[in-house]
Amino acid sequence: MTTSAQTVIAPVRAGTAADSVTARRKQGFQHGGWFVAPFLVLFALFVIWPLLRGVWLSFTDANISGDSASFVGLDNYREALQDPLVWDTLGHSAYFTLLVVPCITVLAFLLAMLAHHIERGKWLWRLCFFAPFLLPSTVAANLWQWLFNPGTGMINYVFGIETPWLTDKSYAMLAVVICTLWWTVGFSFLLYLAALQGIPGHLYEAAKLDGANAWHRMVHITLPMLRNITGLVIALQILASLQVFDQAVVMMDFLPGPEGSTRTFVQYTLEEGFTSYRVGYASAISVIFFVIIAAVALARMWLLRNREESAR
Amino acid sequence: MSTAAQPRKPWTPSQIVLTLLGTAVSAAFLAPFAWALFTSLKSETEAVQVPPHWLPEDWTGQAWKALFETGNITNWFVNSVVVSVCVTSVVLLVSALAGYGFARTEFRGKSALMGLVMAGLMISPAVLGVPLFTTVQQMGMVDTYWGMILPQCAPAAMVYILYKFFQGIPRELEEAAFIDGAGRWRVFFTIVLPLSRPSLAAVGIFTFIASWNNFLWPYMVTNNPDLMTMPNGIATVMNSYGIQWAQLMAGGLMAGLPLIIVFVFFQRQIVAGVAHTGLAGQ
Amino acid sequence: MGRPDLNRRQLLGGLGGLFVASGFGFAALGTGADALATDADTRVRYWNLFSGGDGYNMIAMLNSFREDHPAVAVKDSTLQWGSPFYTKLAMAAAGNRAPDLGVMHMGRVTGFSPGRLLDAWDTDLLAKYGVRKQDFNPQLWNRGVIDGKLYAVPLDIHVQLCFYRKDVLKKAGLLGDDGRIVPVTSTEEWFDVLKEARKATKKGLQTIGLWNSDQNFQWWFFVAFYTQLGGTWFNDADTDVTFDTGKATQVLEFLRRHITDGYANPAFAGPAGAEQFVNGSPFVWEGNWSVPVFDTAKVEYGATPLPPVFGRPATHAESHAFVLPHQSDRGGPANEGAHQLAAYIVRHAQQWALGGHIPAYRPVLSTAAYKKMSPQNEYVSAMDHQATEPKVWFAGSTGILAQRVGPIVVSSTMGSARPETAARRMKSELTRLLATKNPMDGRTAAQGGAVA
């Protein structure tokens, strides 16, 4: 890699022992390239290259066979902006996100409070709330498909209702959301739990001495102390929820749900690429999606920085 | 841990209420598992009886037997193990090296590369599936183990987590070793790595869970049923021939139980691992 | 740190290393598994998309081929049905790594760029191995002919059927002396049958399951009844849409009426229809692949093609067909082996009928063994009354046409759009699709020249 001037010069100047020590100390931290190289190779091959390739393909009419693509300029993007399915499916993913994120955040917090405050059997509560997260998405989806199954499913039976969860467009996405809550809340729950355990106990004791009741302690100590973690949970959930795919397709048997109501954006890109064979167009809408995801991620970074600055 | 030494805490009314509440919520969380288990012990006909009932009238292992006799589930299990083990070990090695490289060494273009890696946090197969697929296809790796494994081996997030961790290790430890004449690689393997065992465990555990449960990428890159992993095989092959719920539930439990059992035994490490990897994103 | 501790750690480390190493060993093996050499003179690589019960039957047929023809080594790969299968086949053909023989849905052949991604069959060679046009339903055979060349050899047709429970229908007085359902020839008769059947149905069960919310099934049913009405899609040159919204409305109203009259419960709109059937619901419309499912469930049932309520019998039919994925150097023994293998399986499709499919090779249908198969013998007539999708590039099993138009049918059946509105939407979607270019060759249906 790079031969820095210092390494070359160091031995020459090594007049005193102290100098030599400094040089060696510095030398130790040189030439990090080799440490990073293996990762960079994989990263370049499977992240950067596909990204560049996707951008290139999005300007072509490439099909799935991989041959004879020709440059079509902005045609794919122009089409995407007018494609009602792009907007519909973006809407579905956004709707899913809008439902999942607040529910998961609140639920995870409540579960964490519960598990934190019960003095006995902590490991048991942790296990119960976290176990679903250890299932593969497809298994969780199959499980809820079975629970929602009309006639033979337990949900309708237990609650004595006849809701067409999976076959009516007004319930289908809700069913996917419920499955997702059960399946993934455990992760955010653990984050909250760890954060709760990290709150210094003396804060509470001081408040108790001041006569604050449990509610006040929660509002004035717990919630502010959990502000960072809440921001993190929300950000992670937004990014993950926008990319929803697995649960929706498996619960709907790989179809877009009743009247297309659970077709998510990821599902649409894959349909365009692999069912309609339109790799160029699928790449274009993937790039659009990437821009949206990146915007969300950057917005979070920006918010974080602002907050840090105002805290200073 | 230290609870054993302390005297047992008394059952205050609020503790009783909380415990009851916890029990109820836990029951709700576990009920789907129980339903899956009971379904898997019914005959296919009994499973679809209307109205449903919790416990099988005829307890039968036919679904489990059929699962092993007719399906490729043992193949899938082996494939899942192979893929997850390979992904986890490559990720650990590669991201530990890279994290250290970024945290503690100097080289030209470091900050630019670091920025690139941060940008990589936003890219996943869900976002760039189609171009990633055509790339892997060009390399001739569709329907191979490598095709499943390698694209999962460049997680920018794990590099970032370890980078943060390595930054927190006091420099003096390494400097002392350098002064003693130790090479950089020796310092890395004999001093830095042992110090970071908890972080490595966290990254390893998290990677293993993610890889074991990964569906989207294996789904895109394999369609040979012999090469599928558990989540993929269950979702695609088992679902495609008239859903047999008892078998499907048995298969789902097969796919989910290994991690849950592991969790019961290594709970402390896994909880720390998940929390650690998650919290590092702060 | 005591010694035992160190030993244990070493042991664990060693075991872990071994575990990881064997993982990588496995991974390395998996890459090269396809390169297995063989001693046989001819080696035929064959990709099929059959797993489950169909896979079992296919492998049995392959094995009997292997016994009869030891000189031909068949290397079969089973791939999962669905879009990835077509993707992979397309890319292998484009990248010149295609297998010698493949399976596809007939309706997808036109869109799969025949001539570029698919090679034409050598009809003389097929005839040598006993497969000739006259042994097939001509309409079915011609679906595989494009620009005058044969690109697909049909193995079967698979059709949408009306399954009925004999026990319930007997109670309702709807079984004839032959133990089969009474014939139905008009919509009124059909709804009368449903009315009687409902009276004999256990409480809590719906009368008929018809996948109201499933875009594929609803689309298939639509194609069937629209064909019964003599409806057409496009003109011969594929330049104009001839879709008849009046007829379409009639079909959509018919489908919708099952729900408004309370025979099909929207709560059981999906696969639950089959479960209701097993529980005692009298009717379900399903694909013939449900035959083994209901056999296993030990249901006393029969199955007919979809009722000819608009006069002319027709039921939706798709077909599994053998294709030759493009190889730039196609020819020689492997190619002849592919012809031989395909011909053999087509001609020995008795076993295939166990999966409910109707063998395409008609001599099989007249064997005593086939005539004994029940309920296969009850719906074999479907072979002569096939309702198929139009022969355009965007058609085919779960293809773009079904994906775009199917949801519109569902919206009418489920009641979120009026039948007339849905029919109009279908027409405008068909118009749009007709003007769309096939991504494989950049030509529209009219320019494609893909029609025989």
TrEMBL record, chain A:
PROSITE patterns linked: ABC_TM1 (PS50928)
Main location: membrane
Keywords: Cell membrane, Membrane, Transmembrane, Transmembrane helix, Transport
Chain coiled-coil ranges: none
Topology class, membrane: Multi-pass membrane protein
InterPro entries per UniProt: ABC_transporter_permease, MetI-like, MetI-like_sf
Classification via Pfam families: BPD_transp_1 (PF00528)
Domain ABC transmembrane type-1 span(s) in chain numbering: 90-300
Residues that span the membrane, as ranges: 34-52, 94-115, 127-147, 171-194, 225-245, 279-303
Cellular localisation: Cell membrane
PANTHER family: ABC TRANSPORTER PERMEASE PROTEIN, DIACETYLCHITOBIOSE UPTAKE SYSTEM PERMEASE PROTEIN NGCF
Similarity comment: Belongs to the binding-protein-dependent transport system permease family.
Protein name: Sugar ABC transporter permease
Organism whose genome encodes this protein: Streptomyces olindensis
Automatic annotation (TrEMBL), chain B:
Membrane topology: Multi-pass membrane protein
InterPro entries referenced in this protein's UniProt entry, alphabetically: MetI-like, MetI-like_sf
Domain (ABC transmembrane type-1): residue spans on this chain: 77-266
Record key words, sorted: Cell membrane, Membrane, Transmembrane, Transmembrane helix, Transport
Database matches in Pfam families: BPD_transp_1
SUPFAM superfamilies linked: MetI-like (SSF161098)
Main location: membrane
Subcellular location per the Swiss-Prot or TrEMBL entry: Cell membrane
Transmembrane portions of the chain: 16-38, 76-100, 112-133, 145-166, 187-210, 245-266
UniProt record similarity statement: Belongs to the binding-protein-dependent transport system permease family.
Name of the protein: Carbohydrate ABC transporter permease
TrEMBL record, chain C:
Listed InterPro entries: Bact_solute-bd_prot1 (IPR050490), SBP (IPR006059), TAT_signal (IPR006311)
Gene3D superfamilies assigned: Periplasmic binding protein-like II
Transmembrane segments: none
PANTHER family according to UniProt: ARABINOSE-BINDING PROTEIN-RELATED, BLR3389 PROTEIN
Protein name, entry field: Extracellular solute-binding protein
